[in-house]
Amino acid sequence: MDKYVFELPMKVRDYECDLQGIVNNANYQHYIEHTRHEFLSSTGISFARLHEEGIDPVVARITMAFKTPLKSGDEFVSKLYLRKEGIKYVFYQDIFRLPDMKVCLKAVVESVCVVNGRLSASPLFDETFAPYLHD
Predict the structure, then answer these.
(1) pLDDT-based confidence at 135, cuts 50/70/90?
(2) Hey, which of 87, 95, 96, 134 would disulfide with 104, CB 3.0 to 4.6 Å?
């Protein structure tokens, strides 16, 4: 069984590369953030609506391990799965170069929820994410 619950294909754009001709490390964070946002959107969650309701999911910690660099024009797929640890949701996100599926990045993103300015559990996320959780 594939552990990933969501995947998003993307392509490297020229301006995301540094002088070495590889994707600048900071852009990988953009890729994984975009993947999380698209995952949330696919579940019907809107960041704008959440914020209007006083609910703000925020990143508490990110760990990224760079494996194989992406270059301009490379196509890749960003995949994720998640676990719940206390009040945190932990997203395990991996990026694979296409078509050879070479691992480019392995990331772990710990997120928490701030409700009306206070760190809190989120019944909305608990309900929404329940079908996607891994043990």
Answers:
(1) low
(2) 95
Task: Give the C-alpha distances (Å, rounded to integers) separating 61 from 103, 107, 111, 126, 131.
Answer: 21, 10, 7, 20, 24
| CATH level 3 topology of 6-132 | Thiol Ester Dehydrase; Chain A (3.10.129)
Q: Characterize the bridge pairing of strands 75-85 and 6-11.
A: antiparallel
Nearest to 87 by CA among 51, 35, 125: 125
Binning pLDDT at 50, 70 and 90, where does residue 118 land? Answer: very high
| Given the residues 2, 14, 18, 94, the one annotated as active site | 18
Q: What is the residue extent of each domain of the chain?
A: 6-132
Tokens 């928490």, residue located: 112
Q: Catalytic: 100?
A: no
